[in-house]
Structure formats: C-alpha cells, structure tokens
Design a protein that fits this description.
By secondary structure, the protein is an alpha+beta fold. It is built from 3 helices and 8 strands; from the N terminus they run ββββααβαβββ. A hairpin with a 5-residue loop joins strand 2 (15-18) and strand 3 (24-27).
Length: 128
C-alpha cells in the first residue's frame, strides 16, 4: 500500500536531540504530529517507526530514539505524496512548526508540529 501517515508523538520530558544535518533541536515536553509518506510499503514504514532499535535515516528517527519519546497514535490514508504537504499545511495552521524537520524533500516549512491535541484526525485519515 502507498500513502501518507501522521504519527502522534509524545515527548514526556523536554529533550535536546541531535537531528543529523539539522543539528541540535530542543523539544519541549508536549505532543507533536509528524507527517510523512511512503509510496511503497506504507505498513513497513509505520512498523519501522514503532521499533526502538533501528538505523537513523529520517529526521523522525532521531527524535523517536530519544528517552521519553514515543508514538501514541498513527493515522494513515492511501494517497499520493503531494497529499503529505497538504496535511502539513493544515497542521501548520493549528500547531507550531519545528522548522526544517522532515521537509528537506519539499518546500514546506516543516513536517513536524507541536500540537495541543490530535483533532486534525477529522481529515480523511484512519487511525491504525
């Protein structure tokens, strides 16, 4: 299956994370939403993010590898890659973007947002 996904991530204790080329980023204890796409094997991409032990490749890997950080919920939709940026734009209107995070392959400000809740799920996505 190909599609897009949103990971609802809980950072239970503020943490500073070295996020590869982005450098050190301070994450306050809060909820975050990360938007991504997998145009091949959506299920495997999501499974990968849910594992703790993995090689760090995507920006989200660095955050998710931190102590006190976990995925609370996963939403997904069978959609093309362009839909990822539409969801990111929608989240950006409601949350605070972590500039440059996860958006090196597009013109979006970010694909990670500090959010108050997961109410964005009213959009056409299903919870995993």
């Amino acid at each position: 299956m190909q599609g897009i996904y949103v990971l609802i991530i809980q950072v239970s204790k503020s943490v500073r994370v070295d996020v590869g080329a982005l450098g050190n980023i301070f994450f306050k204890a809060n909820l975050y939403a990360y938007v991504g796409s997998a145009q091949n094997s959506l299920e495997k991409r999501i499974e990968r993010y849910l594992k703790k032990a993995k090689c760090k490749f995507w920006h989200a890997d660095y955050l998710l590898d931190s102590i006190g950080v976990k995925v609370l919920k996963v939403f997904y939709s069978e959609a093309g890659k362009a839909e990822k940026c539409l969801i990111a734009k929608s989240l950006g209107a409601r949350g605070k973007p972590i500039v440059g995070f996860g958006s090196s392959d597009c013109k979006c400000k970010s694909h990670l947002f500090k959010i108050e809740d997961s109410s964005f799920s009213e959009e056409p996505m299903r919870e995993l």
